[in-house]
Write a structure and sequence with these properties.
The protein is an all-alpha fold. It has one domain (about 1-110): Tetratricopeptide repeat domain (Serine Threonine Protein Phosphatase 5, Tetratricopeptide repeat), CATH 1.25.40.10. It is about 80% helix and about 0% strand. It has seven helices and no strands. The protein has helices spanning about 1-10, 15-25, 30-45, 50-60, 65-75, 80-90, 95-110. Helix 1 (about 1-10) packs parallel to helix 3 (about 30-45) and helix 5 packs across helix 6. The N and C termini lie far apart (about 35 Å).
Length: about 110
């Protein structure tokens, strides 16, 4: 991940370039680094629906369901059709991870 941070300080990459970098890293199963690249894309363009969606997909693959939901909600809000479809038809977490996310949510709401 240090390479991404170092690269971000020495780069004039635009949001689209960071998105492409994140997609490349995701395809190599380097999810934490991909998330950092998507974070940089979002920093460049706060309404970048595709970057939120891609970051949410990485979080999903890592089992971070709360972050997945937050990112997919943002992506849908900013017009990402894939996120809108995912929220209705996408896979839902099951097992202990889903229960943990539900338990954490209960603590926040009370």
């Amino acid at each position: 991940m240090r390479d991404i941070v170092k690269k971000s300080h020495n780069s004039n990459h635009c949001a689209e370039e960071w998105l492409d970098e994140g997609k490349r890293l995701k395809s190599e199963n380097r999810y934490p680094e991909a998330i950092e690249a998507f974070n940089l894309a979002i920093q460049k363009n706060r309404r970048y629906a595709e970057a939120y969606f891609a970051r949410g997909a990485c979080h999903y693959l890592m089992g971070n369901y709360r972050q997945t939901g937050d990112d997919l909600d943002a992506a849908a809000l900013f017009g990402c059709r894939d996120a809108q479809v995912w929220s209705v038809f996408g896979p839902k977490p099951t097992g202990k991870r889903a229960e943990a996310d539900e338990d954490e949510g209960d603590d926040i709401r009370t």
